[in-house]
Amino acid sequence: MRPIRLEIENFTVYRGKHSLDFSPLNFFVIKGRTGAGKTSLIDAICYALYGAVPRYGGEKAHRHLISRGQNFMRVALDFSVRGRRYRVEREYEAGKKRAQSDFRFYEEGKPKPFKEEELRRHIKDILRLDYNTFTKVILLPQNQFDRFLKPQEQRERREILNSLLGFSGLFSALKELVGEEYRGLMSRLQALQLRLEQLSHISPEEVARKEAEVRRLEEEYERLLREKSELEKTLSLCRERDGLLREKEEVQEKLGELISEEETIQGKRQTLERALEILPHLPKIEHYERLLKEEER
What we know:
Blueprint: E1 2-11, E2 14-21, H1 38-50, H2 62-65, E3 72-81, E4 84-93, E5 102-107, E6 110-112, H3 116-127, H4 131-138, H5 145-149, H6 154-165, H7 167-199, H8 204-278, H9 282-296
Antiparallel strand pairs: 1-2, 1-3, 3-4, 4-5, 5-6
């Protein structure tokens, strides 16, 4: 990230409107007497980007950053990253119900209607740094720089680095994890030693007897496996036999139905044959029936 221009109004010791133009500078140093506002300029850059500063923490830092006796505060930062230009503005007015400061964001001069969380994610994507990483890696917190350069012991510099980079918690967690693993291994070792002591009284003859027993059990196991295989084959044959028996019963049942149908068909065939025998005499029968009806009249 390359800062281009910083504008502040009623920000900590900077009452009124002030601006810093970084555009002609490739390298710069901020210096001044204690309390002159050097750290406030760095805080203003951090506040513009993330809406928070390390020394006050939290998202309500604007309440501590507004100049004493003032009701309005404003910070604006123009910066560029990889050739693209951005601008972020933050304003805070005391007494407003809104806990957050108001903000506006511009990319290549065009406003972007972000919400607070969306802006944080977008700043992180642009800088490739979130607030915690930015304040720990880019900004060395006040009062720790001199301790870092001139530690009384080398261990102190390491502790500062671990604290800045967030490794202290990691090392503690690793220490606890290693401790748990060590205690677990020691517990297993003690259990094995106890078991070894329990087995120390066993004679070579007892060991040989146990080995022979193990071999006998292994042979028995192999025999049982073979029997199991034979029984599975027998079971398969029995299931096949049961299937054939069910098929036989179904065929016999169908055969009985066919025999019954054959008897019915035979009776109908006999009736048909008698009808065919009578058919040549049908006109005579009809003539006879007409004569009977005429006599009845």
